[in-house]
Input
Amino acid sequence: MDADVTDSAGPPSDPDHSAGDKPQGRSQEESGPEGAAREGSAPEDSVPEGGAPEGTTPEGVTPEGGAPKGGAPQDGPPQDSTPKNGAGVQTWADRPKSGVAAGRRRHWLRWTALAAAFLVLVAAGVGWWMYQKLDGNITTDTGAAAELKAYEKERPTPMVMDAQNILLIGSDSRAGDNREYGRDDGGSQRSDTTILLHLAADRKSATAVSLPRDLMVEIPSCSTGDDKKSREQFTQFNTAFELGGTACTIRTVERMTGIRIDHHMVVDFNGFKDMVDAVDGVEICLKEPIDDKDAHLELPAGRQTLNGEEALGYVRARKSLGNGSDTERMERQQQFLGALVNKMQSNGVLLNPTRLYPVLDAATKSLTTDPGLDSLRDLYDLVRGMRNVPTEQVQFLTVPRQPYRNNPNRDELVEPDAGDLFRQLREDKPVAVVPADELEEAEREQESGQDGKPDDAGSESPTPTPTYSGSSAADDLCKQ
Output
């Protein structure tokens, strides 16, 4: 007769224990909800690996090949509720292989994420350090800003929104590292090169106008370094920088042109050299060899790439090139600057941070600007606005001038040509430049009886674009 299973034996679905018995190995003192919940199953630590305690067979468990103890054989296949390796215990070797692989993947992903986060932090730190370094290189000209503010009422009013007019000044100071380029007059500063750069409001063109240092102009009364004021005078242009620095030069240019100067930059000799070296030199072509002791320059004829030191001598040489005039030197400076711009754009310098950094580092180390351009962010915005200007629309010219009637060693403006140029820039209207020989030929044709003035590609506009002798950054110096 089969053993009776009473209610005290636990749920009917538990065939492993007889009525009233507790599993082998369970503590008799176990009580409470947890004990009650676990009653009817042996704890893992009480059952030896491989099954029940040695020498016993739990009631209700079918011995291998037989029926349950004390009862008839069960209908259907035997019910083996105990895993072969023990009561629910699983060894490391029995773990699924997919689980091990997944664990290894998770481990690898965690380390990859940590490494990536570390690299991001390092890159951010390096980037911040580089930004701070470049930003700290720039010198702010607060004195010029204060003086210009004091004379705000006499300054021109901007006429076109978003157009920018920037005065670029090449300092001719012979103090400090620049003493090797000439006599040091106690560190006195002179404007060796001055360029008025006009950026169109749509940033589709840029026009750089050279202002001769020997041009005779009206210089206003300016504050001098000894807290005095200079008298208003008619004298050569670069005297303004020597008397009252940048502010006096800006006020002189504004009085002469009627153009509001938005920003200014002063760059010394060494800054120019370092910028050329940072782009791995600039290519030029020489029709004749150069041997200029004053400019520390000795070069053969033909195509060649100038390093920073050679480039500085080339743009400053005067006595040994051409007719020795300042006019030819300015044209040479314009052509070289065009080649420099072309090199930076064609080689992707402006779009490549690793190549742009040395250029910015060289520029900012020797750069003095107004407060509106004294941060790296301000300079970046300026460069970003210029990088899409086509090289053929980056134009260079010299303000129309001729020998001064009272002294042929000085220059004076040619009117109305100079006035027309200044008006075009004030109103942000286009200006065209052509090589000098083409302009001279067009002028001869006009004098011979042909109507009209030369313009840029024969525009049908009723008002032809004023055309001046000059060059663009797209010109190949070796094909001229």
Summary: Residues 97-137 form the longest helix (41 residues).
